[in-house]
Amino acid sequence: MALNLMSPAEIKTISFFDTSKSNFNLLHSLKLPSHVSCGVGIKRKKGNGKFGKRVECVAKTPPPAWPGSAVAESIQRTWDGPKPISILGSTGSIGTQTLDIVAENPDKFRVVALAAGSNVALLADQVKTFRPKLVAIRHESLVDELKEALSGLEDKPEIIPGEQGTIEVARHPDAVTVVTGIVGCAGLKPTVAAIEAGKDIALANKETLIAGSPFVLPLAHKHKVKILPADSEHSAIFQCIQGLPQGALRRIILTASGGAFRDLAVEKLKDVQVADALKHPNWSMGKKITVDSATLFNKGLEVIEAHYLFGAEYDDIEIVIHPQSIVHSMIETQDSSVLAQLGWPDMRLPILYTMSWPERIHCSEVTWPRLDLCKLGSLTFRAPDKVKYPSMDLAYAAGRAGGTMTGVLSAANEKAVELFIDERIGYLDIFKIVELTCEKHQEEVVTAPTLEEIVHYDLWARDYAARLQASMGLSPALV
């Protein structure tokens, strides 16, 4: 039976941090003097023995991937023929759309390595079509099945199972760009391996920035690696800042569809069911991202990504509801001009741009329909309701805290959504579970974490979120 931890009125009480733009201060939330800026020892919850050495008091913002501007440097072409790419998560949505692009542009791109999960049949078809040199599959138990499926292939690829195989795909010596489509923190280590090998990153894995930015961004700068956003909103911003002078960016405006409940009265949210949350008004997507769209957690996480990608302060990143999903995002420049990127809601375009940047590749009107504004008629915008979408305040607060807090927010949300989809908690409980997990993490937030600490607190947040039901004395532990 689903729990109902919050009423609509109680949504207003979420306050694990002071989310006021002008008054928010991590030090105040930790009850430390505002002048403190050094590392302070705080007893941590028992972990795996590697953690508990430090909690730093002031969030250190890592260098952004694109500090308000994107200027194409003179690129030294280091390959012959089509651009060689590796794909992490080749059988997922991002991976299959990337391969569609490669199939349509064989003169522009070629695949040198693929990493997939457990869909052996689809992976085998991909190998037969694109002939990669290296293939990784998640489970070693599936290697024989994959070999059998490829038995008739003349030039067979090398097959490496498990995480090590994915890492080898990410740092394949022939690859110039790596498309990272693996979901969750499982994509972090392969992405780090690709960066250390000097590969540009076509980024479709949210955790790389939401959880990993304090570690990943300095590493990318060290190795002179480009991180190119493959989701529609950040691609839109990236396209708008092309050639922008330094210091010209004033504000980022992220657009949101509003999800399944954008036109539903707040008072009715306590009664919504999983099936209701999965009825997206615009698209058919996976369950998790569809629920995230309903709660607007997807947009809250994108605010954090925008901060890390483009260096904008949280005060200068806004969310607007745009039901038509045609304007993918906007920027405002210092002189008050607003630049926007428009297009049909199609993930292939931002993926293509990460692969081709700084070039623009001609696309067929048959497979890539052109936008007709006259047929659309009108585009509308409205401010999001913070009572309906408390995820926004939670995300801004976690973003301002920085460090491991953003990864904890993302992981807690992922677990809460899983519990909701399994009908073990109610819709409104998602917000409360995320809030309580972040509130608990204030005791041990690390602002300049190592990769191991990032992964550790991702796992901790999922476990803590899953056990909140028992800790509140409401029913047996969620496991």
Automatic annotation (TrEMBL):
Catalytic activity from the UniProt record: 2-C-methyl-D-erythritol 4-phosphate + NADP(+) = 1-deoxy-D-xylulose 5-phosphate + NADPH + H(+)
Boundaries of every 1-deoxy-D-xylulose 5-phosphate reductoisomerase C-terminal domain copy: 227-310
GO biological process annotation, one example: isopentenyl diphosphate biosynthetic process, methylerythritol 4-phosphate pathway involved in terpenoid biosynthetic process
Residue span, DXP reductoisomerase C-terminal domain: 342-463
Entry GO MF terms: 1-deoxy-D-xylulose-5-phosphate reductoisomerase activity; manganese ion binding; NADPH binding
This protein's UniProt keywords: Chloroplast, Isoprene biosynthesis, Manganese, Metal-binding, NADP, Oxidoreductase, Plastid, Transit peptide
Predominant location: plastid
EC number: 1.1.1.267
Cofactors named for this entry: Mg(2+); Mn(2+)
Subcellular location: Plastid, Chloroplast
Spans traversing the lipid bilayer: none
InterPro entries the record matches: DXP_reductoisomerase, DXP_reductoisomerase_C, DXP_reductoisomerase_N, DXPR_C, DXPR_C_sf, NAD(P)-bd_dom_sf
Ranges of residues in domain 1-deoxy-D-xylulose 5-phosphate reductoisomerase N-terminal: 85-212
Family under the similarity heading: Belongs to the DXR family.
Protein known as: 1-deoxy-D-xylulose-5-phosphate reductoisomerase
